[in-house]
Amino acid sequence: MAKYFDVHPDNPQPRSIGQVVDILREDGLIAYPTDSCFALGAQLGNKDGMDRIRAIRHLDDRHHFTLVCQNFAQLGQFVIINNAVFRAIKASTPGSYTFILPATKEVPRRLLHPKKKTVGVRIPDHVAAQALLAELGEPMLSSTLLLPGEEEPMTQGWQIKDELDHQLDAVIDSGDCGVEPTTVIDFSTDEPEIVRVGAGDPSRFE
Fold it and tell me: YrdC-like domain spans which residues (predicted)?
């Protein structure tokens, strides 16, 4: 059964955040809030967690997983960014965007898109998510909590606990979060491509 953590939206309790990070470090799978919507999260090297995310969401091997990073310095360790892309991403983070970029050798091979050798990265603008990343000290493997056959992601912590109780190890609830997934921008080719329009304003990349 998943442990349920009700954390304060502005001042997340360090003890609760620490307990969730302990669960992550023990190869647990969590649901957590972001500035776009709830997401599933696991530690970077957690292959079982990645497989569990695939199973919950019915994903194939072409799905772009996301590395959720605490800040721009951390993001820069895992993706290759030229100057023009650097400025565009820097101006949009933290925020409700996921950027697809060529991965560095720091990214485990199984996280890469099989043909493109790319990975998604993002920096959330959400207090609880940021507290989690700060305590963890590294990016988290992540994917939107969008269940098969559903049009919209799940938005209520209690509902996630109720529905996915036996598939998760922890649920963090900090009240309302977003209801739309991130806007996804693919920077892996010469021109940026808007792959999905979501919570982030896509006009700056058009």
Answer: 14-200
| pTM check: above 0.85 | yes
What is the tens place of the pLDDT at every residue in 120-137? 999 999 999 999 999 999
The two tokens of residue 55 are 């199973």
Strand order in the sheet with 118-122: 3-6, 170-173, 30-32, 39-43, 140-144, 66-68, 118-122, 97-102, 183-186, 193-196
Residue with the two structure tokens 């509902």: 159
Three-state DSSP at 190 gives: coil
Peptide bond into 94 cis (omega under 30): yes
Four-residue CA torsion sign, 49, 138, 112, 183: positive
Tokens encoding 196 = 């999905």
Which residue's structure tokens are 């021109």? 191
Residue 151: strand, helix, or coil: coil
